[in-house]
């Protein structure tokens, strides 16, 4: 049977500056012996990385929960996990597009495991970490930190060429997923100089991952102690957000290695080896005293918790102190079309750097150009058919909707719908005429929105290949109104033929199409009500003149 503990909290720097925790996690169990878990670390340099990390972790786990079964081969499981990463990234793109924000602002790492009885599959993108304890008593680091030579991280958007998938060799007793702040304590880089060829701080990992008893009560107590330990961890040692998931397999016990395996490394000796070759801060080179004290502190706190459990079985755990699973609403893509997904070669952690797309397909440009051409052709047809329809159509409300639609579908061509509303207001109910005119005009203006959206996307896609995409985005954002919907409403009331420009700009800025449509209807209807009122007031005057 599997049991797990979690801890998720903002780092000291984020707490001081009132910044949300950018780490996220998700854990699900399909049954007692299959657990699927993920941790994600939103890049601190990005505005909405906390949202990106939540979506990535949630979608990846849910996709695996829905599609995994124990009969899959190793290659099939790896493909499943790759698809989970694709779905996670596509959901982030959908969220960014829905919010009208730059997809780069949602960058995140992602680490994923499928723990089936004692089999463990893993996937990695970024610099978080996965460590497993085998039944032999050996600790193994499964994932590699994906950084370049300057320490910049490759996030999820870097794509399948960077992602790492694999299977642990041997029977797994427990597994620990952690974001990079905790990983640096468990697997400090300086250990690569250890003569024993052990890249894990075993005494430290032992305190976390070996549980001789894993009843529900002791696991809950351990989770509380784990959270308290991470909260009290010295700020100068871990200033980053801290997220940990540890999953225990009750059905397998870990043997013990020889005593030498559990000794602390000789940190002073390692530091001498690394003096000339390591370029990292003191925070990345923990000393013997610090790690010994941390290990002893954690072991002591867990021992106290276990003792309290034995003395008083009725003690309640404070539910507020136990982290809850992330629960967010995510838009799932209906079908996987990985050929349409664009990944980025961006690699960064603290600074935003220029990047280029490496797997964009020309199909999207062709599609955008076809849509744009279709809109322009339809606009021309609407312009030439509008006059004929005005002369031959019957006087009805449907006719008003159709004529106003065609008048406003003529992008940048003069075909005023105000005349239609005024003429029909002399014949039919003016209020209903205004409502019909507002609906038809708003529908027609959506062609300008579509032209702006696909035209801007075609330009942006083309600039991706010439590394000028960031300049194009800067231009769009610079000229984007802070209150676009208010501006749309006000200009839709003005009796001037300039609204086509607003529609094109709205599409290029990726405003929410439903909101744009609703605001346009309101503005156009209000304008036509004024026209209809004027026409209604003129009826007695015109009648008296005719008499």
Automatic annotation (TrEMBL):
Keyword Methyltransferase in annotation: no
Membrane topology: Multi-pass membrane protein
Protein name as it appears in the record: Protein phosphatase 2C domain-containing protein
Lineage summary: Bacteria, Bacillati, Bacillota, Clostridia, Eubacteriales
Subcellular localization(s) per the UniProt record: Cell membrane
This protein's record includes keyword Repeat: no
A matching Pfam family: PP2C_2
Gene3D superfamilies: PPM-type phosphatase domain
PANTHER family: ALKALINE PHOSPHATASE LIKE PROTEIN, UNDECAPRENYL PHOSPHATE TRANSPORTER A
Organism: Ruminococcoides intestinale
Keywords: Cell membrane, Membrane, Transmembrane, Transmembrane helix
Transmembrane domains' residue ranges: 365-384, 396-415, 427-450, 485-508, 528-545
Similarity comment text for this entry: Belongs to the DedA family.
InterPro entries associated with the record: DedA_domain, PPM-type-like_dom_sf, PPM-type_phosphatase-like_dom, VTT_dom
Domain PPM-type phosphatase: 6-249
């Amino acid at each position: 049977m599997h049991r797990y503990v979690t801890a998720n909290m903002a780092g000291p720097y984020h707490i001081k500056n009132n910044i949300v925790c950018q780490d996220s996690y998700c854990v699900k169990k399909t049954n007692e012996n299959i657990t699927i878990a993920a941790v994600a670390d939103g890049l601190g340099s990005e505005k909405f990385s906390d949202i990106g990390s939540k979506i990535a972790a949630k979608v990846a786990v849910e996709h695996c929960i829905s599609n995994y079964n124990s009969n899959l081969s190793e290659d099939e499981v790896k493909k499943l996990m790759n698809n989970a990463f694709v779905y996670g990234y596509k959901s982030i793109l959908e969220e960014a597009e829905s919010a009208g924000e730059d997809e780069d602002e949602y960058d995140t790492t992602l680490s994923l495991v499928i723990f089936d009885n004692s089999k463990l599959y893993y996937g990695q993108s970024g610099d978080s970490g996965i460590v497993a304890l085998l039944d032999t008593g050996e600790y193994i680091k499964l994932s590699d930190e994906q950084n370049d030579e300057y320490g910049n991280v490759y996030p999820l958007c870097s794509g399948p060429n960077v992602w790492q998938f694999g299977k642990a060799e041997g029977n797994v007793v427990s597994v620990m997923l952690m974001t990079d702040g905790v990983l640096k304590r468990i697997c400090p880089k300086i250990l690569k100089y250890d003569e024993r060829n052990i890249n894990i701080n075993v005494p430290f990992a032992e305190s976390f991952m070996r549980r001789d008893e894993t009843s529900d009560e002791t696991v809950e107590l351990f989770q509380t102690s784990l959270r308290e330990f991470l909260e009290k961890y010295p700020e100068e040692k871990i200033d980053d957000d801290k997220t940990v998931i540890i999953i225990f397999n009750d059905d397998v016990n870990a043997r013990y290695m020889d005593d030498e395996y559990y000794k602390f490394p000789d940190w002073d000796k390692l530091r001498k080896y690394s003096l000339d070759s390591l370029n990292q801060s003191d925070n990345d080179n923990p000393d013997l005293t610090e790690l010994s004290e941390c290990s002893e502190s954690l072991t002591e706190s867990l021992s106290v918790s276990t003792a309290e459990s034995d003395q008083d079985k009725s003690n309640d755990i404070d539910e507020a102190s136990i982290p809850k699973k992330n629960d967010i609403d995510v838009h799932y893509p209906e079908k996987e079309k990985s050929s349409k997904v664009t990944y980025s070669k961006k690699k960064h952690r603290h600074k935003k750097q220029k990047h280029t797309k490496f797997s964009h397909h020309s199909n999207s440009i062709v599609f955008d150009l076809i849509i744009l051409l279709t809109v322009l052709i339809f606009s021309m047809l609407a312009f030439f058919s509008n006059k004929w329809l005005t002369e031959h159509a019957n006087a009805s409300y449907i006719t008003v909707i159709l004529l106003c639609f065609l008048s406003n579908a003529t992008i940048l061509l003069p075909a005023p719908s105000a005349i239609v509303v005024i003429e029909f207001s002399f014949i039919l109910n003016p209020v209903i005429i205004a409502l019909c005119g507002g609906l038809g005009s708003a529908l027609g203006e959506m062609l300008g929105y579509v032209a702006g959206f696909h035209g801007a996307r075609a330009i942006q896609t083309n600039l991706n290949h010439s590394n000028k995409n960031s300049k194009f985005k800067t231009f769009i954002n610079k000229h984007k109104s802070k209150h676009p919907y208010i501006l749309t409403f006000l200009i839709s009331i003005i009796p001037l033929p300039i609204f086509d420009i607003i529609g094109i700009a709205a599409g290029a800025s990726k405003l929410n199409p439903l909101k744009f449509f609703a605001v346009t209807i309101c503005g156009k209807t209000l304008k036509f009500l004024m026209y209809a009122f004027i026409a209604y007031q003129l009826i007695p005057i015109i009648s008296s003149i005719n008499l």
